Structure formats: structure tokens, C-alpha cells
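tool=predict chain=A
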Amino acid sequence: MAILSISVDKKTLTRIRKLMAENKIKSRSKFFLNTLDSFERENSLLNGLKGTVTCIISLNWKSKNNTDIRIAHNFSKHIKLDAHFDTKNGCGEVLVIEAEAEHIKKYYNSLLKSKNISKISIMIE
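tool=predict ok
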């Protein structure tokens, strides 16, 4: 078995501990293995997409001064609905997108890389 060593800031460690307690996960190793399993399931779902796909992406921006508007602009012709709302810590968006599977994957992956997004999820029809 290999040993991994990672560094996280205090805020991230607090989030990890909170999630572990809420889900009754006893070890960090088990926590990260569960996280990896979830990521693999989502990735597998996205990689299995073919043809024209309709999906809903929900995300929370860390601040109301979103500098990643260029991401949405690059995919604007595929966005059928964009509902924006304020939250106490920033703002949120719900997007309905209809596009070829490759465009959906590219857009979702670009959102995942953004440091301005605190939470993101996707539902595929």
C-alpha cells in the first residue's frame, strides 16, 4: 500500500473534519477513498455521454464579483436557461444546457478548474 502526504489549509481541514463527522467516517484514508469513488462515478457518467445532451449544472460562486464570466461566454450559445441568485457567501447559478456531449464535458471541466466556484453539481437528462 502506498502512503500519500498532502497539505491543506486550516479551512479545508475544518471542512474535511466536518464532513467526516457528519458521515461517521473514522479515517482520513476512508474519506479520501470515498471522495475518489464519487469523482470516478461522475467522471464515468460524463465520459459515457454521446450525441446531443441536455443537462442542468448548479454552482455556487465564492463571490458576487465573478471573474470567470468568460467561461460562460464561451458556451453561451449552448445555455438555454441561466438563473442567477444571491447567497449569503456569494451567488449561485442554475444552467440548463443543450449541446453535443463533448461541449458539455469541456464546459463542466472548465468550471471544475475555477477557483471561484465553491460548489458544483451536474444532472444529466
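The chain has two domains: 10-45, 51-124. Strands lie at 52-61, 79-87, 90-100, 117-124.
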